[in-house]
Amino acid sequence: MLSPEILADPVELTRALVDVESVSGNEAALADQVEAALRGAPHLSVERHGNVVLASTALGRPQRVVLAGHLDTVPVAGNLPSRAEGDLIHGCGTSDMKSGAALALHLAATVAEPRYDVTYLFYDCEEVEAERNGLNVLARTHPDKLAADFAILLEPTYGLVEAGCQGTMRAVVTATGQRAHAARSWLGVNAIHAAGAIMTTLGAYQPRTVTIDGCTYREGLNAVRISGGVAGNVIPDECRVEINYRFAPDRTEAEAAAHVRGLFPDFEVEITDSAPAAMPGLDGAIAKEFLDVVGQPPQAKLGWTDVARFAAAGVPALNFGPGDPNLAHKPEEHVEISKIRAGAATLRRWLAA
Amino acid sequence: MLSPEILADPVELTRALVDVESVSGNEAALADQVEAALRGAPHLSVERHGNVVLASTALGRPQRVVLAGHLDTVPVAGNLPSRAEGDLIHGCGTSDMKSGAALALHLAATVAEPRYDVTYLFYDCEEVEAERNGLNVLARTHPDKLAADFAILLEPTYGLVEAGCQGTMRAVVTATGQRAHAARSWLGVNAIHAAGAIMTTLGAYQPRTVTIDGCTYREGLNAVRISGGVAGNVIPDECRVEINYRFAPDRTEAEAAAHVRGLFPDFEVEITDSAPAAMPGLDGAIAKEFLDVVGQPPQAKLGWTDVARFAAAGVPALNFGPGDPNLAHKPEEHVEISKIRAGAATLRRWLAA
């Protein structure tokens, strides 16, 4: 049970959330606690859909903002329960993103009269396949619940505004050949040797750097998997190279796909997975007000996040959270207490003004 | 039961052996039939070791030869029972190598007074890992059973003498890198991209052609498997390329390993498997007599065969069988009836002279 004292302290609240294990698929206990805490706040109306918990104010403000965070973590790596040491809290999910979820829950519980109407949104299964992602499911089943003029996703950004996100696309580039017995290799065509040209293209590729709204997006094109071969005595007739292309928000998915295909004219290219980029969306009034309070220049988000789901729903969204993105998913994951306090103060100054 | 009539006809005998399914590991029923047939010949003394069946004459001849063949086949591919069509017998094992085993069994049953003492040797598990190979097991447990002045392995050679064999070596060449999130790929080093240099070396490699005793051995160096990758969003830190080197009999295994290592000075090279080449061994008197009867120039055996086990035991050995080596292991495997009859006649002329 999250007491009023814990809800009033975002650092204690972070520890409390971290100490309820909630690896993707196992969020129910944590969602129960979050729901109970929100139901204790008379200014919020609360809904639960599976392990998605929503709490909204209805103050009749002209604008609505969303504060959103996921409740799940990657698998525990011997790093629970949490452990405090100086300015650090160590543990699974401290950075990604229970410290961020704690900020949203802390504000939900303690800011009774925000200057915008607010939807607080806690969801499950962000760390696994998109089909299970609670925000994705909600966007499909209750799209009206995402409706807002602006959204902040409390993913780890180390206290900076990380705006928009790059798109990500996976493609399989296939080199083909002809099987033969390895003792008579000249009767075949070696597909793995042929795939060398794919690697040469990848190695020589110069990724773009694109600046939008003052945010610089650095692209990347990389082989992430390779496989080929039939048996130890057979010239292989197929070699598959899986490629991941991270592209700046000035490209649509279709443009990104055409770009990848154009790089490998001599090979079969199959696009296997794709998620759009999100423009930074910093030109709106609420975004500018928020940037003023943060007082730091915005940066590009490197990596795909659920801000793209808000962008796809027509809601400008950015990432802002206390965790360090470079520590996400690592056994040594931790968060700085001072970043939690600073983040809470920033959000309060903006929301309660 | 193999009747005297069937044993007297190498074509009928081939069909009879083919129609007893004997995929590696399942040779017992066929070995039983072979053993019973051999025990029916009063001039032979017969032994059974597992599914290895041995039959020997003891006529006090000054020299002994071995006729050897394996009883197992690769997995059936909808090609049993056998089917005759014109000059062809279709079916699993027709070429590799029940037609060859049939010749040995036919001669064992019908040549009571060969000019050399003969050991007829039928063994199991040639088509699977070397540890299970019946000839290999026999060489370890009863090395004296292989003792001879000359050996013929009735592997498919399409009626030609294929002498010696190439060595075969497998090595894993590993490219390493540094993991990073694919959204921040510049923080990592992509091992799959790095492996492109391995493919470039393989693609540019000029294999040797080596002639010994009139037999020309054509080498080959090929990637046979490749693997690498951690996850769809991670820059991979390892890419493994498995290479198969087929080398001519003028190179020892140690020389072959040094050659492979020398090609990839910038990568880790691990030799994972190795089998020596066998010199053609055509300079002995019995080999020359046999070549005279065949009346065709010898060729190099392309591919590793168990002749190397005889060579390692100090017994000159060559391959000679009616099957077509290019049909081995294929669903459309078949053997020409005329090749079976010609092979039987050649062996009889040599052995019964």
Automatic annotation (TrEMBL), chains A, B:
Biological or metabolic pathway of the protein: Amino-acid biosynthesis; L-lysine biosynthesis via DAP pathway; LL-2,6-diaminopimelate from (S)-tetrahydrodipicolinate (succinylase route): step 3/3
InterPro entries assigned to the protein according to its UniProt record, in alphabetical order: Bact_exopeptidase_dim_dom (IPR036264), Peptidase_M20 (IPR002933), Peptidase_M20_dimer (IPR011650), Peptidase_M20A (IPR050072), Succinyl-DAP_deSuclase_DapE (IPR010174)
Record-listed E.C. numbers: 3.5.1.18
EC class name: hydrolase
Record-annotated Peptidase M20 dimerisation domain positions: 167-261
Key word Ligase present: no
Cofactors named for this entry: Zn(2+); Co(2+)
Family matches, as SUPFAM superfamilies: Bacterial exopeptidase dimerisation domain (SSF55031), Zn-dependent exopeptidases (SSF53187)
Gene Ontology molecular function: acetylornithine deacetylase activity; metal ion binding; succinyl-diaminopimelate desuccinylase activity
Catalyzed reactions: N-succinyl-(2S,6S)-2,6-diaminopimelate + H2O = (2S,6S)-2,6-diaminopimelate + succinate
GO biological process: diaminopimelate biosynthetic process; L-arginine biosynthetic process; lysine biosynthetic process via diaminopimelate
UniProt keyword list: Amino-acid biosynthesis, Cobalt, Diaminopimelate biosynthesis, Hydrolase, Lysine biosynthesis, Metal-binding, Zinc
Record Gene3D superfamilies: 3.30.70.360, Zn peptidases
Quaternary structure note: Homodimer.
Protein name as catalogued: Succinyl-diaminopimelate desuccinylase
Origin organism lineage: Bacteria, Bacillati, Actinomycetota, Actinomycetes, Micromonosporales
